[in-house]
């Protein structure tokens, strides 16, 4: 296993990484990351993935402790090498390794294909 720091291109994003530490490491790794946005907000994140050889699956999961709500903001789908964005107030549906370009919009055929 490699414990080398991750090199992530954050150029052009709204947040600057202030610090990052490994909070837990076993089958997956949990990083504690502190970021600062251009407007001055500082936000702490828990990032879950694996670093062997580097994270190939990452989901940014937000949780508002005041309202007890959550939503997925961005997900890296390693199967299609894409970043997807979605916000849902009621549920989240991760893309994972599904290639959505192969999916049709049919309600009858869609769920069967989602089982891939």
Number of helices: 1
In whole angstroms, how far apart are the ends? 30 Å
Succession of helices and strands: EEEEEEH
Q: What share of the residues lie within helices?
A: under 10%
The profile of the biggest β sheet is: 3 strands, antiparallel
Count of all domains:
1
- If strands are numbered along the chain, what order do they take across the biggest sheet? 1-2-3
Percent strand: 35-45%
- Uncertain ranges: 87-100, 106-110
Rg calc: 16 Å
State the shape: globular
How many beta-strand runs? 6
Averaged pLDDT = 66
Backbone structural class: mainly beta
Walk me through this protein's architecture:
The protein is mainly β and 116 residues long. The chain has one domain. It contains one helix and six strands, in the order ββββββα. It has a three-stranded antiparallel beta sheet with strand order 1-2-3, with no helix packed on it. Strands 4-5-6 form a three-stranded antiparallel beta sheet, with no helix packed on it. Strand 2 and strand 3 (42-49) form a beta hairpin. It is globular, with a radius of gyration of 16 Å. The two termini are 30 Å apart.
């Amino acid at each position: 296993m490699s414990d080398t720091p991750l090199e992530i291109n954050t150029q052009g994003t709204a947040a600057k990484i202030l610090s990052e530490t490994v909070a837990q490491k076993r089958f997956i790794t949990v990083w504690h990351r502190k970021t600062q946005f251009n407007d001055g907000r500082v936000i702490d994140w828990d990032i879950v993935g694996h670093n062997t050889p580097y994270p190939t699956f990452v989901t940014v999961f937000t949780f508002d402790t005041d309202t007890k709500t959550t939503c997925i903001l961005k997900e890296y789908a390693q199967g299609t090498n894409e970043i997807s964005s979605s916000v849902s107030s009621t549920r989240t549906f991760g893309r994972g390794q599904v290639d959505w370009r192969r999916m049709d919009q049919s309600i009858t055929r869609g769920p069967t294909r989602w089982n891939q």
